[in-house]
Specification:
Strand content: 15-25%
Number of strands: 17
Helix content: 40-55%
Low-confidence stretches: none
Length: 591
């Protein structure tokens, strides 16, 4: 009986033996004989790799094998991981709902401005181009569906956001402040490019840009340094003058009746206590406002002259609580840090020597034979050079028409040196609320607000220089940067095990013998700094390098060459470090 030839195919047979399943791949030919279908085994190909077996199966079915690069094309690959980390954290914190309960074009644009400030701070024009399809710098525009946004829309989003600032700050205060808590307040200055903004004015520049106009920015933070509210003032506003509006804000808008306000020695002055804080306490029942600050150098000198501060206080300790008739009803906590004393002595000596070197040159210029320095030019040079090092108080100057001489005020220098390393904290907080070490610890927490300014201005968010001309745009820009730092602050808290940041500050606090001593890092943080490795063996990152690492996780748009309409999104596989970061943040990287 004749055989009718059939097709060759791959047959996979499952066999179970002793609880295990085995797969056998056989190359078979199927044929018909006498009306019956029969199979002929041509060979066993089970020893071949799985992809090869699958390729043989497809070829025998008549399909054509195509190399992946011939079947697919990657149309666009955009850095995505850092976007997912920041945007995911922002959403987990509920910032979108803080901006507006309902999604809108303006809200998405405002969110984009916040995220962009964290992942890559730049101008609004550059930010718009980084969102656009043709010039995208990341997946941010695609994820938020705002690839068609231009810089004008971003400016309009800023205008949309500014009227919502008060409501947003009130909600942040509800989250992070409560009655009886510490409230940190500090100010800084930020310089401008341009002269048209009505807020811009010449003032005391903390940026070393005294020749530029500036604004003054006041920041309210929780005791841990989490930003809550920000205020913009004209550039010539003195620090203490910014305090009153903060008091009204915390009292009326945030509704807090009991707080401890912590401000530096130039902020909570006697005038502010007299005009702003004490009237508030005296005029309203149920309001308990306490404060912690430090005495400025002239007040410390006056206290020492009155005999209240003596070195014998520190024979066997570095902290003492005293009282003085100069500050009736208040607590004074006197601290002496030997390391700070050594540093101040070294600094003063270096500045004195630098000043003398500059003054010697002026004196020599008055004695030179050719074009000697004469008349008013001598005073101009002296004023310029002695002001540069801020040591004028330590020198007696003698200027004539044709000569110049100087000498040190040794007695005044010795008197100042006797107080090196000593500082006095002044507070209205009762002992049953905060003991003396607690007062020192609370004042030192002000460094958290200073850290916020450092991040805003230099390290991460680069709020300066400001190029906006309209006052509202300047305020919106500063508020956006504060919200960006709010997101970054929470990211740093979560990512601390991967960063050089100290993930256990309480352990570091326990390591120092006295609260007056310099802050100590935990053993874990010191180990990370020394080995440059985390506890699980990964390289330690800074926040910036971790964002750069996450940015290598890309979002790719892939299209089938055989079907121009068929496209899909494919993400690169995350590394173990990247996955660890997303696990700590508690957000997905596929958005």
């Amino acid at each position: 009986m004749a055989k009718r030839q059939g097709a060759v195919h791959v047959a996979t047979i499952r066999c179970r033996s002793k609880g295990r399943v085995y797969l056998t791949h056989l190359l078979r030919r199927t044929y018909r004989e006498g009306g019956k279908v029969k199979h002929e085994t041509l060979g066993n190909i089970s020893h071949l790799p799985g992809p090869v077996i699958e390729a043989i199966r497809l070829l025998l079915k008549g399909e054509t094998l195509v190399r992946p690069e011939e079947a697919f094309s990657i149309e666009r690959g955009l850095p995505h991981g850092h976007v997912a980390a920041v945007l995911g954290t922002l959403r987990r914190l509920g910032v979108e709902e803080l901006l507006s309960p309902k999604r809108s074009r303006e809200r998405d644009l405002a969110v984009a401005l916040i995220v962009a400030r964290v992942i890559g701070p730049r101008s609004k024009l550059a930010t718009a181009r980084g969102l656009a399809e043709a010039t995208a710098a990341s997946s941010l525009g695609t994820v938020l569906d705002i690839v068609d946004a231009d810089e004008d829309e971003l400016y309009e989003a800023m205008d949309w956001l500014l009227p919502r600032q008060e409501r947003i700050e009130t909600e942040l205060a509800k989250r992070h402040l409560k009655d009886g808590s510490l409230v940190l307040y500090d100010v800084t200055s930020i310089y401008f490019e341009g002269v048209k903004c009505p807020l811009a004015a010449y003032g005391h520049s903390r940026d070393g840009k005294g020749d530029r106009r500036q604004i003054v920015v006041g920041l309210l933070c929780s005791a841990q340094g989490c930003p809550v509210a920000v205020e913009v003032f004209e550039g010539n506003t003195a620090d203490p003058k910014t305090l009153a509006i903060q008091i009204v804000k915390v009292r009326d808008r945030f509704g807090l009746r009991r707080i401890v306000l912590v401000g530096d020695r130039g902020m909570i002055t006697e005038a502010r206590l007299k005009e702003d804080i004490r009237p508030l306490i005296d005029s309203q029942t149920g309001v308990q406002w306490d404060w912690i600050t430090a005495l400025r150098a002239p007040a410390l000198k006056k206290l020492a002259e009155a005999g209240a501060v003596q070195l014998s206080l520190f024979d066997d300790r570095d902290l003492a609580e005293i009282t003085s008739d100069l500050y009736p009803g208040e607590r004074l906590v006197v601290c002496r840090n030997p390391d700070l004393a050594v540093e101040r002595t070294r600094t003063r000596n270096a500045l004195l020597q630098a000043t003398e070197k500059a003054l010697d040159k002026i004196a020599a210029a008055t004695r030179r034979r050719r074009k000697p320095l004469r008349g008013s030019a001598i005073g101009v040079r002296v004023g310029k050079d002695i002001g540069r090092f801020k040591m004028a108080k330590h020198f007696d100057l003698t200027i004539t028409e044709d000569s110049f001489a100087y000498r040190r005020k040794e007695a005044a220098i010795a008197e100042e040196a006797a107080l090196d390393g000593i500082y006095v904290l002044r507070t209205s907080v009762k002992k049953d609320v905060l003991d003396a070490p607690g007062v020192v610890r609370a004042y030192k927490s002000l460094s958290a607000a200073e850290r916020a300014f450092r991040s805003l201005k230099t390290v991460d968010l680069k709020i300066r220089p400001i190029h906006h001309h309209l006052a509202g745009r300047v305020k919106a820009h500063v508020f956006l940067c504060m919200l960006a730092y709010y997101v970054e602050w929470h990211m740093r808290e979560a990512l601390a095990p991967m960063l050089f940041d100290d993930e256990d500050p309480a352990a570091g606090e326990a390591r120092r013998a006295s609260v007056v001593q310099a802050a100590q890092r935990s053993e874990t943080a010191e180990r990370k700094a020394h080995t440059k490795k985390t506890e699980d063996g990964h390289p330690v990152h800074s926040f910036q390098t971790l964002m750069a690492d996450l940015a290598t996780l890309s979002r790719n748009r892939i299209r089938l060459k055989a079907n121009a309409q068929a496209a899909f999104i494919q993400y690169t596989e995350s590394t173990s470090i990247q996955q660890r970061a997303f696990d700590l943040l508690g957000v997905p990287f596929r958005l």
